[in-house]
Amino acid sequence: MTGGPSAGGGDPAAPANAAVSAPAALPAPLECGLKGLCPRCGAATLFAGAVRFSPTCGACGLRIGDFNVGDGPAAFLTLIWGAIVTALAIWLELSVGPPWWVHALVWVPVTAAGVVYSLRVAKGWLLAAEFRNAAREGKITP
Ligand SMILES: [Zn+2]
Question: From the CA of 60, how far away is ligand 1's center (Å)?
Answer without folding.
Answer: 4
